[in-house]
Amino acid sequence: MKVLVLAAAYPTLDGRRPLYYIHSRNLYYNEKGIEVVTLSFACSNPYNIDGIRVIGLSDYKKSRENFDLLICHAANLRNHYRFLMKYQDRFSKIMFVFHGHEILHINKYYPKPYYFSKRRKIPFWAQNAYDSFKIHLWKKYIRKNLDKVWLVFVSQWIFSQFIKETQIKVEEITGHYAVISNSIGKFFENNMYCPKNIKYDFISIRVNMDVSKYGVDIIIKMAEQNPEYKFLLIGKGEFFSHYKKPQNVDWINKELSHEEMAQYINSSRIALLPTREDTQGLIACEMASFGIPLITSDIEVCREVFEKCPKVSFINNDCPNLKEAVNNLDLDSGISKWTEYYSVNTVDKETELIIRLNEQK
Residue 93 half-sphere exposure, CB side, CA atoms within 13 Å? Predict the structure, then answer.
């Protein structure tokens, strides 16, 4: 069986790791005997990474390669929709994996961007108009092609918002959707938090520091309010070109592999990962699965995702009380793994769905 995966971008050979959660899935598919080819719309020259073949749109146009299934991650209009309008007849089954922005009104769900963000340049009305148009097109497409389409949502929260935003009734898509969370990286399944030579009280990994939903400003506020604590912040961005970095914050301006992350996690007491909006919070799931105690935000999706997590505490984004959050953590019961988002509960179910869809052709 062979599948084509569409992605706006993909990890590259020079160490950049955009949309790594797609790569993690693809590696699992390969292990299960499903041949995966990724079409990255950002790819100009084909390459192979960890056994996954990556091609660009121009490569696909030249090829008449046959695939059993098409998988669309975080589909957008500019790339995925245009691709579907031209090539969808080549596929008997199409699976959409919804991660958030593709079926949400950004101004309604996403927090106000930082003043230096490029998103600030988009007029409020223009963003609303585009999002309404975007949702209308996807709603129309899904209804028209429901016989060949399957919808996967990474959390119950994003499924609920999809129903609200599209006004598609649940009974319309019954038998054509599933809620299957993102799987954590295999490294965090196979390894365990081993605290030693503790240097930091809190570690925060925010790949894109300049996106306000990831709450770097909340982290900085807590660092300023708690000078007796030592913080480590890992992530890339221009944030500290516009905001002052407190003296008790060390910053690593780099995107790290999972193996590199582990070195710093093991030298930290608690993972601090606030968020203003996140359809699952994959890095927080990976941290909690690894075994380090976690502090995250008291918002609906976080309550859902971490409902069964044994070592999690929640903070109010507007008035974060870090000491209270720490006191609410059970730090004396020893280290334990959390298996909620292991592959057996996530990507294995996705793989079963892919095989079943292929059998329905």
Answer: 18
pLDDT by residue (tens digit) across 179-194?
A: 999 888 889 999 999 9
pTM of the model: 0.90
- With beta carbons less than 8 A apart as the criterion, state whether 323 and 224 touch: no
At position 279, the amino acid (one-letter code) is T
The full DSSP string for 284-304 is HHHHHHHT--EEEE-SHHHHH
Owner of token pair 């380090």: 292
pLDDT single digits (tens) 209-239:
999 999 999 999 999 999 999 999 999 999 9
Structure tokens at 214: 């990831």
Question: Token pair 């909620």 is at which residue?
Answer: 340
What is the C-alpha to C-alpha distance for residues 71 and 3, in angstroms, rounded to an integer? Answer: 7
Within 8 A by CB and 6+ apart from 27, the residues are 50, 51, 52, 186
Count of beta carbons in the 10 Å neighbourhood of residue 34 = 18
pLDDT at position 255 is: 85
Tens-digit pLDDT profile for residues 270-322: 999 999 987 778 899 999 999 999 999 999 989 999 998 989 999 999 999 99
Residues in contact with 86: Cβ distance below 8 Å, sequence separation at least 6, in sequence order: none
User: 48: which 2 tokens?
Assistant: 């192979």
Give the closest residue to 28 by CA, choosing from 4, 51, 56.
51
The answer on pLDDT for 361 being more than 70 is no
Q: 11-22: b or e for each residue (b if 16 or more CB lie within 10 Å)? A: beeeeebbbbbb
Q: Can you say whether the dihedral through the CA atoms of 119, 123, 129, 133 is positive or negative?
A: negative
The C-alpha angle with vertex 202 and arms to 18 and 253, in degrees rounded to 5, equals: 40
Distance CA 330, CA 315 (A): 15
Residue pair 338/306 in contact (Cβ under 8 Å)? The answer is no
Name the burial class of residue 175, with classes exposed (0-12), middle (13-18) and buried (19+) by CB atoms within 10 angstroms of its CB. Answer: exposed
